[in-house]
Amino acid sequence: MSQPRSVDADVVIVGAGLSGMIAARTVLAAGLVPVVLEADDRVGGRILTEDVMPGVSVELGAQWIGDTHARMFRLADELGVETFPQYDEGETSYDLGGSGVLRENEFHTRFADELAELERVLRRLDELAADVPVEAPWLAPRADEWDVISAGTWYDNQGLSPVARTLLEICTVGILAVPTVEVSFLHLLFTIQTCGVTAELFAESEGGAQTTRFVGGTSEIPRRLAALITDHIVLDSPVQTIEHSTDGVVVHCRGGLVARGRRVIVAISPTLAGRILYDPPLSGIRDQLTQRLPNGSAMKAFFVYDEPFWRADGFNGQLISDVGPARMSNDTCIPGDDHGVILLFLEGDQARTFGRLPVDERRAALTAELVRHYGAKAATPEFYVDGEWSDRQWTRGCYNANHGPHVWTTYGEALAAPIGVIHWASTDTATHWSAYMEGAVEAGERAALAVVDSLP
Amino acid sequence: MSQPRSVDADVVIVGAGLSGMIAARTVLAAGLVPVVLEADDRVGGRILTEDVMPGVSVELGAQWIGDTHARMFRLADELGVETFPQYDEGETSYDLGGSGVLRENEFHTRFADELAELERVLRRLDELAADVPVEAPWLAPRADEWDVISAGTWYDNQGLSPVARTLLEICTVGILAVPTVEVSFLHLLFTIQTCGVTAELFAESEGGAQTTRFVGGTSEIPRRLAALITDHIVLDSPVQTIEHSTDGVVVHCRGGLVARGRRVIVAISPTLAGRILYDPPLSGIRDQLTQRLPNGSAMKAFFVYDEPFWRADGFNGQLISDVGPARMSNDTCIPGDDHGVILLFLEGDQARTFGRLPVDERRAALTAELVRHYGAKAATPEFYVDGEWSDRQWTRGCYNANHGPHVWTTYGEALAAPIGVIHWASTDTATHWSAYMEGAVEAGERAALAVVDSLP
Question: What are the Amine oxidase domain coordinates in residue numbering (chains A, B) (predicted)?
Fold first, then answer.
């Protein structure tokens, strides 16, 4: 461990993820001095681009933005990071309910009734979500009713056919990264409302959440942001204790660093924020909230081929399956590079089950899935890499905090409300596209502006 | 903060609750040297007797043992702590489903059908619980089915009348200290099986969990236990970091104390165990488990009167109500003292809602409840005290860790399994009377014996 050091600032910020760095930039723009304490040896938090071969990078973390992510488009523009559209030509490949592998057109014909059922439920979700105030979901007129059942129980009560129910589960787990039995139905409706409508949340094209990627990789965003505030970031400094009073804070890191400030912004996920020792201790309500907001379970696995052979066969690289370890996939090729890159998602139970296996076994199971959908060429990738987020000490799960039954209505008020000189950021506290990069920016700005307003 | 100090031991134990001290005693008996690091300025953890006036004490924490708590009877005997039976003469007072206040006999006549419904459901719960292996609930033949719904959802599906459903909720919240919508049905069945049958769990007499109290207060148990190992306990030492390797552990406390040992036993609730920084970091499965085991919400409020006037009116001091802030009460007089002491329980939503109020408002609401049941004399207590556990920094909720849907089947294996030189205790990891003092003793002994076995 390094020798004790100390640093003084106006605002101490815990976490150099997107939310924390946006907060720091906002504080700096107001003429105040921030210091960002990052536990890891890098910035970016849940954003992590990995270069895997010349010209090819993969996104182990956040990857896309969508058309309504105005803050992120503005940020990318300011930072000079260019964007490109997600590849979306050709058909999706399906294997659901024992159908065997079917091309999109075949699937839509065979399961037209089930898709109509799904559509009906999504419309119903949109109607109900419209009644959830994103600033205070617990004030929804039917909040008490919606918060005592899980999303899964509500789904089970819709009289859906097995295939429609499975499709609904896959769509939802793709957003929440936990099985629907683990989250409150109110939280599902909040998630929908925070993003707009189900069509935006679940779609990958035409106005959805995943239309656009960043040239050079998503990590260009935190990398360039960090460059603007580089004198104000300290890496390898896990915060363990926050002493606070009306006069300010003294923040202690493992390794001995002590940071002093007038305010602190805790810009990490609520479950990690709950691990810090606060002196004096926080209220029971705030503490019990952080006991009840577990992060989800998500893995991304990438196969790199010499070419995107599925495109020539008329596939868009997306699969939807209830057979193999991956429920969904995406074409994640890099424009201007000839390699074919395909991403498989392991979310919820799949992340937990296959995440525990040795990488070779996991890779073999995923390869088999790809071969079934895209043929023998899928068996011989040039490269494979995957990334599990719950094993990463300074993240401990993706994509975000999930509210189980009864959490929003009982503890929701404590999620983002400042406590004295302590403010809270991270996308988990956002009201628009919470759980996305867009929400991280919103939360960082909101917390920073509140801090600036509170200082004489 | 005090100066850095250091201590060497064979076994470092985190937490001087009952489980940690039992572990220390067991380690010591095997000829090894323990050191117990306690965050608080006292031993006892969730046991806390408070002397409120000469001759009168109240139990803000654990209070009773039951006839099948063999380890606790043996421990009390060894320590020379005598026991006395819970007062149980007279009638319970009811106010449920808009009935107004009714004496037990009236209530049983008016609601005979509803009580028969309740009895039928309890028998059904006993039948189902018998299939849950307490060492590994996730291996129950129907574990997957039972773990995807909440206990509340299962209750809702039993076709119960409103009064029977309410009684069932009150009984269950009295055990779990969270609303039934927050816990997995499998966890409820585990809880029943770990204790025997519902009759033992829910009853206060004749073989139930709450038949017997300790002369001098429950704190006599930890106090005398601490006296036996007093050289091995360090108070005011919150553990923040555990460095571990095959060679042993280096445990860092706030304030600078460093304890070195060959093994560590973490004898605090799982949610608090998850707040320690482990180096190297623990697996994602263990970490995500501790994100998903929130402590319950429980308060106890005591009124002390010049005499137990309710006894003269033929009441046993128990009330069951769905009207006021307290759903249940108990006569908690001290034998040999003339005062009347009554205990009101606020559990789950009641603890959360009324726990946030100023004490005067809470006391007024509780007083009104007592007056409705026991008459005007209840309005003029000599003394009032209550205790909330989620506000206590080193406990953060009672009675124990609650498994929401999907936790047992997904993460259960990580609850008590040692990780290298790290072992886990606390009643939350027990298999017999988990959540009770009896379970704390079992878990402490089990962890200590495993540690002793593992040392050359």
Answer: 18-451
Assembly ipTM: 0.96
Distance CA A214, CA B238 (A): 45
| B179 contacts on A by Cβ (under 8 Å) | 148, 406
Suggest the residue from B157, B406, B407, B408 to mutate for an interface test with chain A (most A CBs closer than 10 A). B406
Helical spans, DSSP H, in A80-219 = 104-110, 112-129, 143-147, 151-156, 162-176, 185-195, 198-202
Chain B positions in Cβ-Cβ contact with residue A406 (cut-off 8 Å): 178-179, 181-182
Q: How confident is the model at residue B207 (pLDDT cuts 50, 70, 90)?
A: low
pLDDT digits (tens, 9 = 90+) for A125-183: 999 999 999 999 999 999 999 999 999 999 999 999 999 999 999 999 999 999 999 99
Q: Give the single-character DSSP code of B404.
A: -
Assigned CATH for A105-202: 1.10.405.10
A142 touching B (Cβ < 8 Å): no
Domain ranges of chain A: 6-45+219-294+402-454, 105-202
Could A283 and B391 be called an inter-chain contact, meaning their C-beta atoms sit closer than 8 Å? yes
CA dist A231 and A219 (Å) reads 19
d(CA A37, CA A239): 7
In this structure, CATH architecture of domain B6-44+219-294+401-454: 3-Layer(bba) Sandwich (3.50)
B281-294, pLDDT tens digit by residue?
Answer: 999 999 999 999 99
* Alpha helix segments (H runs only) across B111-253: 112-129, 143-147, 151-156, 162-176, 185-195, 198-202, 220-228
Give the chain B residue nearest A349 (alpha carbons): B410
- Indicate yes or no: CB of A291 within 8 angstroms of CB of B396: yes
B158 lies within 8 A of chain A by CB: no
CATH topology of domain B106-202: Guanine Nucleotide Dissociation Inhibitor; domain 1 (1.10.405)
By Cβ distance, the residue of A352, A389, A404 closest to B410 is: A352
- Put simply, the answer to whether B396 touches A284 (Cβ < 8 Å) is yes
Q: What is the pLDDT of residues A335-377, one digit of tens each?
A: 999 999 999 999 999 999 999 999 999 999 999 999 999 999 9
The topology (CATH level 3) of A6-45+219-294+402-454 is FAD/NAD(P)-binding domain (3.50.50)
Is the CB of residue A83 less than 8 Å away from at least one CB of chain B?
A: no
Q: How far apart are CA B171 and CA B162, in angstroms?
A: 14
